[in-house]
Specification:
The structure is a single chain. It is built from twelve helices and 14 strands. The strands form three sheets. The chain has a seven-stranded mixed β-sheet, sandwiched between helices. It has a five-stranded mixed β-sheet with strand order 9-11-10-13-14, with helices on both faces. Helix 2 links the parallel strand 2 and strand 3. It is globular, with a radius of gyration of 19 Å.
Length: 325
């Protein structure tokens, strides 16, 4: 039976299901237990599963991930929370030099079933270090899977799939979408973890996005439709690996592509998409691949973040520029 729930609730229910199904699944992080997380995503889990499975850790991100690596070596499936995106960098060494390398270092003998949950992105009026979008830093590292759901249903199922993965998954949760509700069918057959999905059909141009920007792109497509423009919206869902086949199929139909993400455009994931699709679809494209994202500047104070983040007008401007070729 499908139930309408917010994304935060969907992740909570997914973690609950995983904890019930496998005693080797653990949840760890700062304030995830008694408090239930700063966004209450883990609310009630410690009460129901005990403090030996839902573990409040010290404020030490490197130690959290390092402990998770040790637990994974002993057969556990830890799900660790980094409280905010900007707090992940003390753990970056552990993630890049240990977590991502263990499988290759052991010639495939050692699995690393670790999920690193990271609430990310802006739009909530937070202070410094609480609104970053560092997904490209992790996508650049071989050995890591990097995903980001855009809605409650995907949040539920992608968490299930991430926990079941024998490879480490960096699971970026768009915090501004935590309270957006959608139908979640907990008995459904989910799409593959790294498969992109068309969430709106169109013929004139493809908008490709993931995480918090998918909803914006749907709003852009609706606004463009009032002007007689038919935009296809593609939810990438996964940043590494990227579903280039799905992007190519859409672009071969629409012949134009605009990639949208919150992270800075400079050296962002949109650059890799633009380069690869230009190679694959050179004779289909009727305009260069355009990118819309954040600026190459530190994330600004909350009063200025709406000027920094992509919005309806900035994406529509890119659409108009593409269609003008």
């Amino acid at each position: 039976m499908a139930e309408k729930m917010a994304m935060a609730k969907a992740i909570n229910e997914s973690l609950r299901r995983a904890l019930e199904a496998d005693p080797k699944v653990l949840v760890m992080g700062e304030d995830v237990g008694k408090l239930g997380g700063v966004f209450r995503v883990t609310d009630g889990l410690q009460k129901d599963f005990g403090d030996s499975r839902v573990i409040d850790t010290p404020l030490a991100e490197s130690g959290i991930v390092g402990t998770a690596i040790g637990l994974a070596l002993r057969g556990y499936r830890p799900v660790v929370e980094i409280q905010f995106d900007g707090f992940v960098f003390p753990a970056y060494d552990q993630i890049v030099t240990q977590l991502a390398k263990m499988h290759a270092r052991s010639l495939g003998k050692v699995k690393m079933p670790v999920v690193v949950r990271i609430p990310y992105g802006g739009g909530i009026g937070a202070v410094e270090h609480h609104s970053e979008s560092p997904e490209a830093l992790f996508a650049h590292v071989a050995g890591l899977k990097v995903v980001s759901p855009s809605n409650a249903s995907d949040a539920y199922w992608m968490m299930q799939q991430a926990i079941q993965s024998d490879d480490p998954v960096i699971y970026f949760e768009p915090k501004r979408r935590y309270w957006d509700k959608a139908e979640v069918d907990v008995e459904a057959i989910p799409a593959p973890l790294h498969k992109a999905q068309v969430v709106r059909e169109g013929t004139d141009l493809t908008l490709a996005a993931y995480g918090p920007m998918v909803k914006l792109c749907q709003e852009v497509a609706a606004a463009a439709a009032e002007e007689g423009k038919s935009l296809e919206v593609l939810d990438l869902r996964s940043v590494s690996p990227l579903d280039f086949d799905a992007i190519q199929a859409s672009v071969e139909k629409t012949r134009r592509l605009v990639v949208v993400h919150e992270a800075p455009v400079f050296f962002g994931s949109g650059g890799e998409i633009a380069a690869r699709i230009t190679e694959r679809c050179f004779y289909h494209l009727e305009a260069p691949v355009l990118r819309v994202g954040g600026y190459h500047a530190p994330y600004p104070p909350a009063r200025l973040e709406e000027e920094y983040l992509p919005d309806l007008d900035r994406v529509l401007d890119a659409v108009d520029r593409s269609l003008a070729y």
